[in-house]
Amino acid sequence: MTAVAPPSGSAFSFARSARGVLRRVPVWTWRLLMVAAGPRERARFNTDPITEVDYTHDIDYAGKGLRAQRLDVLTPREATGSRAGQTGTGEPLPVYVYFHGGGWTSGDKAAVTKYCAGQALGGMVVVNVNYRLSPRFHLGHVLHDANAALAWVAEHIGDFGGDPQRVVLGGDSAGGQIAALLTAATLRPELAAHYALRPSLSGKHLRGLVQHCSAVDFSVFFERGFVLSLNFVRMLLPSVAAPARRFQKPLPSRLAVERLKAAAAFMSPIEWLDAGHPPVFVSTSERDFFYRANLNFIERLRQHAVPVDALVYDWSSTNTEHTWQQDYRYPESQEVYRRLHAFVREVTRRPAAAAD
User: Fold this and answer.
1) Pairwise CA distance, residues 278 & 301, whole Å
2) Which of 46, 146, 253, 343 could pair with 281 as two cysteines, CB 3.0-4.6 Å apart?
């Protein structure tokens, strides 16, 4: 295939040009970068909209009137004229619930509208979710939003022709971490208890997990020279109450890092894998910031005999910078879509009744 040159103005163009010297990017720098590049990314990724899909935008899934708690539903149009999202036989379609990336601090579902439409064309109802962002909100808030979105899916997705008993979760970067950790919390009661979470879906109805360049192994944050600072980990933790902090002595640096590692284990999906995990599709590349995290995740899945389909590009694939999957023009992205469609068909092919 002919390589497509990365267009200028990308959110990661700065990272591409300075990859050799980028180390420990602070949270505020990341937020400024995303604020500056976000509108261009949103426009570029959504050029030439897909018209073979029906769009329902900005459904308030939590009932609180917040922009951060809204979702879109994308359903493929059927030539048969049957109810939106259903096949000609009237059988509901599998559901793909997607969480956008943005380093937990930024991003919006609008940027991945065309990506989601491309997956809907593969024969699924797609739910594109917004959630509250850090640093104003911590990871517990984010997981509760994601779980509330699944509660909405369980109750309402049938109205759009989707099957709430055949659900696949997915996401890119931080959104992939959210999807993976929510999957783990649905299956592991101790993790759900840590976040005071009551899972909205039965584990048997979560049929698969899709990961695009995801932050699935937090141990990489503690490696020397990793691109993002440890403050990305700290900001996801619940804040310590100010009165309590006033009487605490500062922790020695090494002890503080060890405590942060222990806390990070509850954020790191790789720590919660076991043989009961649903199948996973992973796409990453050597150009991805979370390449090592994804390789670790794939290895751990295989150690637990969890079915995993891995699409990993090497450095020579120039179109595979972090979250390249969103740019539909790249042949590598098109290959991701083909593999993703096949993965969803495979993991959801049994009728839901057969799984009960």
Assistant:
1) 10
2) 343
